[in-house]
Every structure is written in C-alpha cells, then in structure tokens.
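[step 3/7] inverse_fold.run input=structure_tokens len=342
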C-alpha cells in the first residue's frame, strides 16, 4: 500500500513511517522541512521515504501529498509547548485535521488513522473515559482544539467514513526527531527536581507499540475509536524507575497539585509576553496532578500487540537522550557510553 504520513518528523509519525516501511509499504511524508527529514533518517541509516514539501494548513499541499495514496496516518499536531499562538494552534489542530481527513475522503482514501489524545475525552474519573465518552469542552486552548477536531471526526464517522481514532496519553520512546514534550518533561525533572504529589501518576504508551497498532490498522483495517493510554505509574514509581535504569540521583520535591496548577496558570500568562523554558502549563499540570487509571483497548490483544514494560520504555528513551546529547551522561552513569560499552 502507498501510505501518506503527516508529522513524519515527529515522534509518532516517524515511528509509524518506519514500521510501515519495514512491513513493505510505500511511505510518503508531508513535511515542512525535507532537510530535517533527510537528516533524521540518515542518522538512523534508514532509507528516506518519498517526501512532499508542505504544511497541513495548506490544503493544496495536502491534496498533492495524498494523490495516489491508499491510506493516511495523520500524526501531525501542535502542542502548547511548540506553538505560542492560540490561533496557530487551532489552525494546525483543527484546520489541519479538516484539510487532511476531508481531502482524504474526497479522494477516496479507504484507510484513515488519526492520532488524537485522551485530553479530548478526559475525565478525572477513569471509568468514564471510554470510546463512547463525549468530547469534553476545555477552557485550555490545546484541549479545546482537540475537542473541536474530535467533533468534526465523529460526525464523519457517523456518516460511515472509514476513520480510526487513537487516544494515547503520554507517548515516550527513543529516536525522537522533534524532542517531544514527554522527553522535555523527563529532562526537566532530572535536571531541576522531580515533583512528587501524593500517589497520583500518569500513563505512558511506548511509541513503538503505538506504531505497531497504527500499522495493524493500515494493513488489516478497522475503524472506530481506540484508547491506548499505556501503562500507569505513580510519580514515585516513575522516579524509582528513572533512578534504577539510569543511575541518576533525583532531587525529589514534595508538591501539592493545586499549587502546581496555579503555577501553570501564572506561567501561561507570562508566556504571552516572553518565552518560558519549562514544560509547566495550566494544561499539563491539570493532567499531571489529576490523571486517573484508564483502560487500554482490547484491540491490542486481538491484534497481538503487548505493551512494553515501562522500565524498558524509560531505559530506551533515556539511553537515546544521552546518546543524542539531550542529557548529560554524567547525570546518568548507567547510560554513559563507557558504561553501556562495558
């Protein structure tokens, strides 16, 4: 099959592209920077997919990229840490979805996989986070942008469109061309202190497992809505795992959830006037401090996909961060080049 992947120089898109290529499919990427794509795949020593230069907010570029494709994986998205303009965030997360998915349907593409986020249907009661849960309006721009895209896509699904919507939580893994928000947050916690608030926690899905599900949906079909939040770990467990696999010594800082949510709101105001180099925002702190345990779709088991142990995900992610120079090897003695070599 010929498959268009958007977001191919991001964490999910790049891994989906590699998984599809490894399975023998022809992959085309819609990218803003061909040089960035060439550099990334070149460093991996892998064949560069076909490239079309353009942006998902440009419908003409999108239609050019979709020409002749049998399937599309729409993984491109913007986050509050990447885009400081609310208008641009909506252009990417709502307008881009309409351009890609709407054009794919117009052109007769029969297999469509869209990477959403559990934030679109988030509830602090995990039992209420289900594939049938209604979109939850958000006061925060990122969450609301995902909600508006969700409403659009569900309308299309209701009309019989062949769309599979995936809802991951935190996505982690090695070989991250864009140094995603999850990696930024891990780096921040290692370098500035790991805040522990009660026994709350969050869920991570390994990007390689998510890519395996994407590949299965492209190859074998399947439309509908699929929850893939991943493996739950409390903040204390995450700190323990990071120290165990990396050898680093974390500064553990007891924290109150309400205080972090307040700090996030203050930083969001400051961001309107200048750049703030921290992953803390009102939105990220809401999810970090109020996350429930959410069940994964049984489609994983049906398709023979077993989620990796979170220790493997953290070990591989941190080892890559050291190799790529995102983390000082001295902070992670178990992952330093000399330690790994021996």
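[step 3/7] decode complete -> sequence:
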């Amino acid at each position: 099959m010929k498959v268009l992947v958007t977001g191919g120089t991001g964490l999910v898109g790049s891994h989906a592209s590699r998984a599809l290529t490894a399975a023998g499919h022809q992959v085309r990427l819609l990218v803003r920077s061909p040089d960035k794509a060439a550099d990334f795949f070149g460093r991996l020593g892998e064949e560069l997919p076909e490239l079309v230069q353009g942006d998902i907010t440009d419908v003409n570029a999108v239609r050019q990229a979709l020409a002749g494709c049998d399937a599309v994986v729409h993984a491109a998205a913007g986050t509050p840490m990447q885009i400081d303009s609310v208008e641009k965030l909506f252009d990417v997360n709502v307008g881009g979805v309409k351009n890609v998915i709407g054009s794919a349907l117009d052109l007769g593409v029969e297999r469509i996989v869209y990477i959403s986020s559990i934030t679109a249907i988030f509830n602090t009661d995990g039992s209420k986070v289900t594939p049938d849960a209604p979109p939850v309006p958000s006061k925060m721009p990122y969450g609301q942008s995902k909600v508006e895209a969700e409403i659009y896509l569900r309308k299309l699904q209701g009309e019989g469109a062949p769309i599979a919507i995936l809802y991951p939580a935190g996505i982690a893994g090695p070989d991250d061309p864009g140094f995603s928000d999850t990696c930024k947050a891990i780096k921040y916690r290692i370098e500035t202190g790991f805040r522990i608030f009660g026994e709350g926690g969050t869920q991570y899905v390994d990007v390689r497992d998510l890519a395996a599900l994407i590949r299965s949906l492209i190859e074998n079909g399947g439309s509908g809505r699929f929850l893939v939040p991943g493996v739950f770990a409390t903040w204390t467990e995450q700190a323990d795992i990071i120290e165990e696999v990396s050898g680093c010594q974390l500064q553990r800082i007891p924290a109150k959830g309400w205080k972090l949510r307040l700090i996030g709101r203050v930083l969001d105001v400051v961001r309107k006037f200048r750049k703030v180099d921290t992953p803390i925002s009102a939105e990220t702190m809401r999810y970090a401090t109020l996350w429930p345990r959410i069940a994964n779709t049984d489609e994983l088991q049906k398709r023979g996909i077993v989620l990796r142990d979170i220790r493997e995900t953290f070990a591989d992610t941190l080892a890559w961060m050291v190799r790529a120079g995102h983390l000082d090897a001295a902070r992670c003695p178990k992952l330093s080049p000399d330690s790994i070599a021996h």
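[step 4/7] annotate
The two ends are 43 Å apart (CA to CA).
Residues 11 and 176 are 5 Å apart (CA to CA).
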